[in-house]
Amino acid sequence: MTHEAAHNGETPLATGPVLRQYLDETAHSTDSVSAFNNRMGRLLADRLGDAEHGAKPIGYVTATTLLTYDCEKTGISGRDHEPMPREVTGQPPMMYGLFQEESVRLARGAFGDAFANDVETIYDALREQSPAPGGIPTVLPQTLLKRMLS
């Protein structure tokens, strides 16, 4: 399903190919923040899966959260245990927080309003659960997962 289909009322799954297509069509800025967000978006696309196996909004948020954790905290991919690309590690913490906000915009553009609204709802719930003001925990609380999946 292309991102155009997402805007026609269908509820898509988030897939890597659709996100990559959206990034290819919209990534024209070369400033450092845009370049960082574009690179992170492409790494996120790698984690979302192919056209047959995509992610629901909770999976999209989980993939985004784990990606930012891998880049910010460990520098090692939790998926394949390989080093993360140098250009996305060692950034100020604010950059990773900004990417989580950017991920909502990416979801809206690539997968449609309904999908992005669900992503925003999940982020809002995570912020309520976080001990840090405005923070998002890196591990989704079990009770939140149960509530979001039901």
Give an overview in words.
The protein is mostly helical. It has one domain. Helices cover 63% and strands 0% of the residues. The chain contains seven helices and no strands. Helix 3 crosses helix 4, helix 3 crosses helix 5 and helix 4 packs antiparallel against helix 5. The longest helix is centred in the C-terminal third of the chain and has 19 residues. The protein is globular and about 35 Å long. The N terminus is likely disordered.
**Overall mean pLDDT:** 82
Oligomer: single chain
Q: Tell me the major beta sheet.
A: none
> How many extended strands?
0
Runs in which pLDDT lies below 50 for 5 or more consecutive residues are 1-7
State the helicity in percent bands. 55-70%
Tally of individual domains:
1
Dominant shape: globular
Query: C-alpha Rg, in Å?
Result: 15 Å
End-to-end Cα distance, whole Å, is 25 Å
Annotation field: number of helices? 7
The H-and-E topology, N to C, reads as HHHHHHH
Q: Which structural class do the helices and strands define?
A: mainly alpha
β-strand percent reads under 5%
